[in-house]
Amino acid sequence: xxxxxxxxxxxxxxxxxxxxxxxxxxxxxxxxxxxxxxxxxxxxxxxxxxxxxxxxxxxxxxxxxxxxxxxxxxxxxxxxxxxxxxxxxxxxxxxxxxxxxxxxxxxxxxxxxxxxxxxxxxxxxxxxxxxxxxxxxxxxxxxxxxxxxxxxxxxxxxxxxxxxxxxxxxxxxxxxxxxxxxxxxxxxxxx
Length: 191
Prior knowledge:
By secondary structure, the chain is mainly α. The protein has helices spanning 2-5, 29-38, 43-52, 59-67, 83-92, 100-112, 114-132, 135-147, 151-162, 164-172, 181-190. Helix 7 (114-132) packs antiparallel against helix 8 (135-147).
C-alpha cells in the first residue's frame, strides 16, 4: 500500500481483468453473432443450435455471452401493477377512497363487462348497508341479490335469508359474541 501512495501518478487499472469469451463458446462466436444480428435473442434456442454444430459446453456460458450484448436497462417510468391483480381491490373498495387513476381503471373494467358491473353495484350496496347499519337497505339488497343472474350473490343471499334474524339483530344491537368465540369453541370441543 505504501508503494502505491508514494507514486507520483495514480496507478493504471492493470488489475482490472477483462472477461474473455468462454473457451468452449469461442469457436461458435461468429455463428452466434450472425444469429444475434438476425434477431434471435433466446439463449436456450442459440444453445440448441450450436449444440447441433458440435458445442459441448453448458447453456449458461452461451447465455452469459449474449447477456453482454444486450443493451443496459434504462430506468423509465415505474411499471404499473397488472390490472388483473388489483381489480378485486378496486371492486371492493369504497368509491370515494379511490385515486383518480384507480377510478379510471375501475370504469374501464366495468365498461368491458356488464355482469361485473352488476356485481360491483351489488357489492357497493352491500358495503353501504353494512356501513350505515341500514336493515331496510340490507333486506332490499337480499331480494335484489337473490333475483340477480349472478349465482354467487344468489347463493350468498339464500344463505343469509336462512339466518336473517341473527343478521338483523347484528345490525340493531351493539354487542357481539366475537370476544368470547374462542371460549365457546373450547367449551364445544371439551363437551
